[in-house]
Write a structure and sequence with these properties.
Blueprint (H helix, E strand, L loop, with lengths): L5 H47 L4 E5 L5 E4 L1 H7 L17 H17 L1 E10 L5 E12 L5 E10 L1 H23 L3 E6 L4 E5 L10 H4 L11 H16 L4 E9 L5 E13 L2 E11 L1 H22 L4 E7 L4 E4 L1 H11 L16 H15 L4 E9 L2 E13 L5 E10 L1 H22 L4 E7 L4 E4 L1 H11 L16 H15 L4 E7 L6 E11 L5 E10 L1 H22 L6 E3 L5 E4 L16 H4 L1 H4 L3 H11 L3
Length: about 625
Amino acid sequence: MEKLSSNTMEQLLKDNAQLRAKIAKLEQAEGRIRIVEEAQQESEEKYKALYDNAPLSYQSLNEDGSFKDVNPTWLSTLGYELEEVIGKFYIDFLHPDWKQHFKKNFPEFKKRGYVHDVQFKIRHKKGYYLDIMFEGCVGYNPDGSFKQTYCVFQDITKRKSAEEELKRSKEYLENLTDSITDTIFSVRMPERVIEWANDSYKIFGYTHNECVGKETTFLHVNQESSDDFGRKLNETVKAGKRIMRTEHPLKRKNGEVFPAEVTVTFIEENDSIINVTSIIKDITERKLAEEELIRNKLLLESSIESPKDMIILSLDLEYRYLYFNSTHKASMLPAYGTVPRIGECIFDFMSNKDDIKKVKAHYDRALAGESHIVVEEYGKGDARYYYEIRFNPIIDEKDEIIGVTSFAQDITDREKTRRELENTNSMITSIIDSPEKIIIFALDTSYNYLSFNKAHIKEMKLVYDADIKVGQYILDYMPIEEDRQKAIINYKRVLKGERFVEVQQYGSGKERSWYELIFNPIIDIEKKITGFTVYVTNITDRKLAEIALTEKEAYNFAIFQNNPIATIIVDNDGKVIVSNLKQMEGYRTLASGDIMYKDYATKHKIDMYSEMMKIIKSGKQ
């Protein structure tokens, strides 16, 4: 020590002083570090207590990405127990699609020190995944090194689902608006500037970009038309309405004007209209169809009203009037004393309960799908009328029955005539059926039956085994060609207007019968031949008797002629009836009608007349 120089001692003292100062500073810094560590420990305890009781899920990760801590909310949200989480790696709880995302971004998070609105899919203990969104920061040691993460997350599964649904709905709406033929504009008010448009080219011929940002005046025919549409908008708003539907002429890009149906929806904010959505439909075809419908309606009404004797009406399913023509209206007054009205039940205008019951049954049949025709009597008291009525269901484009139509014609006069004719025909039938042995039938010009009596039915069955019917061809019932040909000759004669009588034989085999047929043409009021009537009598017995008598007479005459005794038979006047003398000598052959006492007695100078008269008067031969 004694050997050290004074300079060296001073240097040592100086260095010692500096060393003591450094030691003092270190001791002072160590005290501050302990204070900081204690404060940090207290802060961490408070921070943990805060997150343990927080409603949000909290987690803390170590630098390697393993769980250091989670709060009870985190455990209840994901369904795990604490020991199933602490020490496990966060990446193992993520959806496979999100693991790479974590690997890439966790190192960045540790460097940056915070994250905001970071999303992951994390697995619940039950196996399904939740969408979560993180907010967090990084905690550092006093020396600035990484200590741990502090993060909270929200379960945004429902929100994500809603966002995806909203996205799908938006895409669907965009596709829908682009696919429909109508043009849709979103217009900013009050400027009337188009903010958005779908594909309007289909109607106007403009592209999307040609519409957006422009005022709507270019769509109108002229400024006056645009101002008129604006007035309609203002009137709708003043009336407190939020939707306006109107028809208005608009103009295409090529200058063509067309009728449009415009539906406007108003969007209000702070008592002011800030936007309107306009849906524009080209109704050119509809207008043309409406015009055609009006023309057809006028034509239909004209057609319905034109037959003044035809009653036409239609009813709905509740029997309420849909339509009736003037003829129906006029017919109800005399029949029931009422005037019908559209929209009201027809039965309210019918005072006869029996009529209501009767016609309702027909309406119900039509409403069940059955079309039918009836002839019935309607009215009250002495004002009863006969109608021929056609009932038909009204069927819409869905093949559903929506009502009934009825067409009725007043046939009172015709029906009365028909009934009188029926009575007359009945009487005539009784008359022609009364003579059992007289066969009567009538044919038209084509040889089809118009009528016949019972005797003819019986005779045709007996002769030809035929079951005849009115309207049928008579020759179809006659199998024998000879009979057919005779009949055709007779029918042609009578259809030329000839009235005549024939005696002819008809039938088959040995059973052929003799008939006396009287033919008479049927002549209408216009003097046209419309058919003919045949009156037939079976004269077989009489004819056979005549034939037998003729044969007997021929036999007797042959005997008389061959008698060797000359014989002359005369009448009371001396006229020759018959003689078996071929010729008297010197005289011509005697003939029937010769006067015997003149021609024969003169030659013999006999007063034959006196002699003959004596004989005749005495009765002697």
